[in-house]
Protein 1
Amino acid sequence: MDAIILQILNGLDKGSAYALIALGLTLIFGTLGVVNFAHGALFMIGAFCAVSLNKLLNLSFETVDPTRTDFLGNPLKVKTPYIEGWFGPDLGHAIIDWSVPLAILFSIPIMIAVGFIMERGLIKHFYRRPHADQILVTFGLAIVLQELIKHYYGANPIQTPAPDAFKGSFDFGAMMGFDPNTIIYPYWRMIYFAFAAVIIGGVFAFLQFTTFGMVVRAGMADRETVGLLGINIDKRFTIMFGLAAAVAGLAGVMYAPINSPNYHMGMDFLVLSFVVVVVGGMGSLPGAVAAGFLLGILESFASMNEIKSIIPGIDQIVIYVAAIVILLARPRGLLGRRGVMED
């Protein structure tokens, strides 16, 4: 039982990342009809927003500390972050320590701007082109963004620590009546799952209960009719592209302490996220979220040593096997609209 609970927690953790990325992909496909293979790069850029803010807050100046000396007896030069010089050592250290949560505010305008530039500068020219053309151009854009990150940040992963308050693990076992230290889980992974739930709930509430969201949903269902009502649906869809970019970026920001950001992390998540979108149903927002958590839990259970000893390598292919089975039985996906991908 303890192993099952632990794998469910691991699955919710992975599923949170899959669901957030797939949600943004589905928003773009549902509104603009674009297959955006650069969406994983947006996740990567979000993670490097956290890296950039952490580096920015750690910029330092040198001072001489006469009370400390080096091995030759000379006064020791000490590096002090500018933020500590401006706000004092206690507040300055706290700001640096909380750089990842602060990067949420830092990344939102950046990701929206990146989304607008991407949509207006490139993707809008491919709306009426075949999906194959969209895939090629957005995949090429993803490679360009990946290489830019590699050029400026290097090829090695960059550690971006979580706040000290959320380091360590929570003892689920003791809370549920098991022996202490039977089921322990990192605090930050729990924070990530809660954060993903808030973002997903916020997106659905925005689409369901705001006038803007209702118009967008109507445009997703019948774009021409909404346009005939005098509503500039294209402008609203561009805004949705920016919001989808922000969702992917926020997913990357909060994932930075879990998996140290590197230049290829976007590609690592991209293919899996597209599988999630297709399994959930192309254009179905609830389907993307449900499939993300379902496949995350399935992958987590497949990674258990007991399973891998029976079927070696199953953890690497289980998501694709599940996708094949689901799509053979239900071509439109779990919650896809009737007629989509069923021709």
Note: Residues 2-56+108-329 form a domain with the ABC transporter involved in vitamin B12 uptake, BtuC fold (CATH 1.10.3470).
Protein 2
Amino acid sequence: MTTVKNIDARRTQHCETTALGVLLRHQGLDLSEPMLFGLGSGLSFVYWDSKNMGFPFLGGRVKPFELTRNLAARLGLELLVQETVSPRRAWQNVVAPIDAGHPVGLQLDSYHLDYFGSKVHFGGHVVAMYGYDDRDAHLVDTAQQGGTVSTSLTSLAEARAARGPMTAKHRSFTLTAPRNLPSPRGRIVPAITACADAFLDPPIANLGHRGIGKAGRLVRTWLQRTDAPQRDLPQAADLMEKAGTGGALFRNLYSDFLAECTQQLDSSHLRAGHGLYAEAATLWTEVAALIAKAGETGSAQCLAQAGAILRDLSRTEHEAMRALSRLGQ
């Protein structure tokens, strides 16, 4: 068996920040999961629906791998990304750095992984791989998926080769920190303002604060949107709370990031943004509970309440991001 030594796996919540944490700690850079998420300008919102979708999807972060690219650029890390349509080349791209003593990040479809409890296709899942033998690959995933886990080489190949929404072509990546690493503290303000600017001025109405407002209008129709509300609505709520979001559709993670930032920067704008996002996190959890209850009971009133809270959340997050955008002034 070939394994990378001194892998530091922790009980973290979100797949991409979990993998990033493993790769960066191996480089000697130890940042909390909320700090990784925030420095990567990870927070967003999307109301995603289309004719070929069985049910609408509420997303609370930027698209897969954008967080990694943002973080690498912001901290001056060398990000080496490899993609290929060849399974043989894809395997070589992974074993070469591991044989050299470095963990590797992989983007894949979690549906095929042996240890994954929820068999739902998600092509934007990210793991860190640190070893392999003749039969299995050894990975680090989120706490809810088991942390340090193994999956068969066959299942890993299927997960990496999968095609569909958010998938990549056998994507693997490594991170290398420069000798003179810029202070993460000095990158906090640019990370926050970039996130705020994108949230406040989305290119389409499905994104940012406008998307939350749109969700508030459309969530009321969700009982009519499906033939299986007892399945689809609770599943949507679970995705908001439990599917690697850290709870509250990533708002807990971002609130914790802002709280950590207030210990390093003295700013009334930052404190205001943190207070509003702490409030928003509580409301998002309430929305998820109402959506789940609506599916279980068939109550249109629960969806009406969820819609009203979402409209409030659109205003709350808009106010929070306006305050945070002023950090750069």
Note: The chain has a mean pLDDT of 96.
Protein 3
Amino acid sequence: MAPTMEDQQMMRGQYRVVVIGSGNWGSVAAKLIASNTIKQPIFYDEVWMWVYEETLHTGEKLSEVINQTNENVKYLPGIKLGNNVIADPDLENAVKEANMLVFVTPHQFVAGICKRLVGKIRPGTEAISLIKGMEVKMEGPFMISKLITDMLGINCCVLMGANIANEIAVEKFSEATVGYRQDKEVAQRWARLFSTPYFLVSIVQDVEGVELCGTLKNVVAIAAGLVDGLDMGNNTKAAIMRIGLREMRAFSKLLFSSVRDSTFFESCGVADLITTCLGGRNRKVSEAFARSGGKRSFDELEAELLQGQKLQGVSTAKEVYEVLSHRGWQGLFPLFTTVHEICIGQLPPSAIVEYSEHTPNFSLVEGSALYY
């Protein structure tokens, strides 16, 4: 029997993947993806990874070392990415054959990257964002997935979850959530690309809910780190996490009425919040900030503690505060407001446990009775 059109497409390796970003999480994403593309015929074997070129202390170029050693020696040392991962410092060249774009860079760089890609990507290309953060424009908050969609004219799903990259790199069990807008088949393809026996991916029709969970939990993690730095203990930290989850849900539903309550019980929601407040980089740097009494800046501590990785929580807290202040919502979100004011030095670290929790007017939010 002659092969069907679908069989022919599968034999050709219909889907070509590029990972845009090569930091800690980007390198782990490339490893996950490469383990699947080599096994599944619908994907082209080779996975391209765009590398923001750096010169290492040895004088070698990072992209060249990755290709020689199959290892990102700066951001994920000791982990083999897969022989089918190809590092490329030329963004336009890296994406030219791809029709599946995986965005995984610090959120503040996305607009500049997309600007460079306008007119350079293939028709019918799909994207997914693993990026936790948002842009704030004059008209209001702008999710990174929407920024990619609007700038490049392509559909963009999101993947978020309780995903500390170094644990996934050594194949400890983890979960993640793909949020999609309309096309379930595309979401299932993304899940197929990422899923492994140790990395289970589910899909949810709620892009904004999934993405906002991944974004806002970093602000709560700053608060959790402050509690750790103040040696306040587990009861206080649990209270901060509960208040934070409440504010995450309320903020998300005020911005997007389509956000589903059930999303907050997926990996992207409560699970990501827990793991980030227990072990993420935002918690780590925030703890050091509190132990210094707020005398050392977050920028200084980021440079000292993260070896080139970027902190997202402080910038996200600023962006969230811009939305709150513009809409007069500070009183509804005392935790989010306090975190930002501590980050900019307006309040001391101890303010995180000193503020009086107001009774917010959650009647603005559908289903608010769940809060009381």
Note: The chain is about 45% helix and 15% strand.
Protein 4
Amino acid sequence: MIPARQVARLHNALPFWLSLALIPLAVYGALKGGWAVLLVPVATWWLFTLLDAITGRYEENADPQTPEEALFWYRLITLIWFPLQFALLVWMLWYVPRAPHLGTLEKIALFFGMGVISGTIGINYSHELMHQKNRLERWLADLLLASVLYSHFRTEHLLVHHVYVGTPRDAVTARYNEGFHRFFVRVLPQCLASAFRAERERLARKGRPWWDRRNPFWRYWALQLAFLVLAYALSGWVGVGLFAFQAFVAIWQLELVNYVEHYGLTRRYLGNGRFEHVLPRHSWNASHRASNWLLINLQRHSDHHYKPDRRFPLLQNHDEDEAPQLPFSYPLMTTAAMIPPLWRRVMNPRVRAWRRKYYPDITDWSSWPGMGDAAAR
């Protein structure tokens, strides 16, 4: 176990700052045009897959009792990310539509890359920030989510996903044998509806109607509208279209990761609508070093659901005795998820092995409440 004094050292935090390299890549792509417009997606998906192969796995754990003040250099990257991403987005919205050297396909490709940045990094950092208790970090999370028109993710993630993961009430727990494309179409409306319902029920318990000013949806809608107005002010309807496209790409990136994180995993049903407590075995774990640098340990997802209040540098790696392991890191696994036959070939045997290991007494998964194998082939 890595002691707190070593965790606090700057050189240990710096690898998690690699995401900053994506910003100059995006700017260079816009200025250069041509093949350079693809630098961001190539870097995030393929370069980090290559780096994972080179750097291997990292399974050491920091002391989970490390004090908050020792995490300054780790927290700082999440605190400064929104102004940096915002500046890049504003510049792209102003510059790209006017650039005479960029064709239509190049402009679309650049905003595809912008969506990869705001989804892979921005939403991921908002996820870290929304789990914290101070108002600054939660506001930064809201601003990052508004910049991709997905503000309700904060409510859905905190009040629904963490409570009901691995059960039929959690939309983003991908069902066994459910392909990503079917999953994606399903979760978009379901997550919005479940988030709104969660806030309405929370207010109702306090004797307030859904339209009460304390409903965060008012803030969500206002921030999202502000971003749309900004996009229009910068480049008219073309700006709005490009902004909306990058938001869609970011949401697609988020839901790809959601799909991978819990595919086919369920909690034991205890009867009367109750399920067992969340354990590390209810999320897929990945210990690939480089992609965990890029994703600030998001792949240690088993521990995140087990201890949701842990900051990212303190998330623990769980070995195969405690949690199911992904064969590859998120960049490669999300690519595989886009090809359902390939995904099922890779992951379905692992889900069946997980069932035999942790729930050998359950022989008929087709009757599992809302999470079984009715669609299995």
Note: Residues 216-262 form the longest helix (47 residues).
